[in-house]
Each structure stands twice: as C-alpha cells, then as structure tokens.
Amino acid sequence: MTPDTDDPTPAATAEPRNSFLEEKAFRSRTLLIFGAITDAVAADVSRRLIALDADSADKPIDILVSSPGGHLESGDAIHDVVRFISAPVYMIGTGWVGSAATHLFLGAPRERRVCLPNTRFLIHQPSGGAGGQATDIAIQAEEIIKARRRIAHEIARETGRPLDAVLADIERDRWLSASEAVDYGLVSRVVEHKSQLRG
Fold first, then answer.
1. Which residues of 80-98 are buried (b: 16+ CB within 10 A; e: fewer)?
2. Scanning 30, 133, 174, 175, which has its CA 20 to 30 A from the CA of 12?
3. Dihedral Cα 89, 90, 91, 94, nearest 10 deg
4. Which helix (H) or strand (E) holds 112?
5. Catalytic positions
6. CA-to-CA separations, 109 to 83, 88, 94, 100, 138, in angstroms, rounded
7. How many CB atoms lie within 10 A of CB 142?
8. Kind of pairing, strands 61-67 and 89-98?
9. Helix (H) or strand (E) holding 120
10. Whole-angstrom distance, CA of residue 154 vs CA of residue 125
11. How many CA atoms within 13 Å lie on the side-chain side of 8?
12. Beta partners for 64?
C-alpha cells in the first residue's frame, strides 16, 4: 500500500520526532518506564542510568513508572542498577505500578519514592507456568517460592512492615490507591506538580 503523501506526519518523520523527544527527556535527566518490563527495557533503562550517572553523580535522575510488571529478573536488574549508581534516583509512580514494576520502584529509598494522585499499586507473589519433566517442575516451583520470600523481604525492608504481614498481603493480589500506598510505605507522599518533587 502506498503511503498517503497528504498525511502531515508520515511514517518517515515519526522516528526523528521520537528521537527528538527522547533526547529532550534524556537531557532533562528523566527516564520513562511504561509498559511491560522485559530484558530489552531493563537493558535500555540501565544503559541510560549509567550514562546519566557518568554525566553527573550529584544531579538527580527522575524515573516515571507506569507498568503492569513483567519479567521479575528484568525488574531486579533495574532495581539493582538504581542502587548501584551514585546519582540520586527519584521514582515517580503514575497510572499503575504493579508486580515487577513495584519491585523496581522500591530500588529508590522511601523519601525519593512518590506518586501522582491517580496512581494505583499492585503487590502479589510471583507466578509462573511450570512445565517439563516432574523434576524440572519441582525445581521451578521451589524457585518461585524462593522468589516470593525474596520479594516479601524487599517489601518489608522498604516499607517497615512485618515480614509475616507482607507474606499474607501478597498471597493474593493486593491493590492500593495512592493514599493507601503512602500508608503502606510504598511511597513517601503524593505529589501533583513537579515543583513538589524535591520538597
């Protein structure tokens, strides 16, 4: 099919515009994590974090997160790189932050975890489709149990809640509004404007 030449924004101009917007966001030291967390997303975010840290280890980096979650270990990678670099990272929840996205969100200290008013959070235990031989299924089930306890430890440490309470909370899907996330300890406060971010 021949592209419509009357279209004011043909596909040929879409990529340069996206590149321009990406460059503007990068220069403002702002990263976006939207959509599913994958290995590709983790690699891209980690690369940008390391580059921004090399540019300045003192200037803050803002990460806006709106994600249903995804691959747990990819979330682990972003979580660990946030802690690894020297530049202070602010996590800003918007839309919804669920599952593995909540885990990477906890990479920043509580005072630098905030959210916008309509953000929803979801915490739960990891899930997986075990398959293969009986022995392999048993191994996979054991790894899921280990991951569940590891996630619970992380949530407990970062929220100050008792481990047993967190384990009970993540047994099923646990949804939290912005204000409930503050009470739970996932975020320090709700902000409505960028001017409130460093406050």
1. ebbeebebbbbbbbbbbbb
2. 30
3. -140
4. none
5. 99, 124
6. 9, 9, 18, 17, 36
7. 10
8. parallel
9. strand 120-123
10. 12
11. 0
12. 32, 92
Q: Any idea what DSSP says for residue 70? A: B
For the whole model, what pTM was predicted?
Answer: 0.83
Token pair for residue 111?
């005072």
Helices (H), 56-162: 72-84, 100-105, 134-159
The CA-to-CA distance between both ends of the chain, in Å, stands at 53
User: Residue 83 has which token pair?
Assistant: 């802690």
According to DSSP, the β-strands at 120-123 and 189-190 are: unpaired
**CA–CA dist 84, 131 (Å, integer):** 35
In this structure, what token pair is assigned to residue 168?
């009970």
Cα distance between residue 117 and residue 33, in whole Å: 18
Q: What is the chain's pLDDT, residue by residue, as a tens digit (199 residues)?
A: 444 445 444 554 556 666 777 778 788 899 999 999 999 999 999 999 999 999 999 999 999 999 999 999 999 999 999 999 999 999 999 999 999 999 999 999 999 999 999 999 999 977 655 566 777 667 777 877 888 899 999 999 999 999 999 999 999 999 999 999 999 999 999 999 999 998 6
CA distance 139 to 119: 36
Task: Give the 3-state secondary structure of residue 95.
Answer: strand
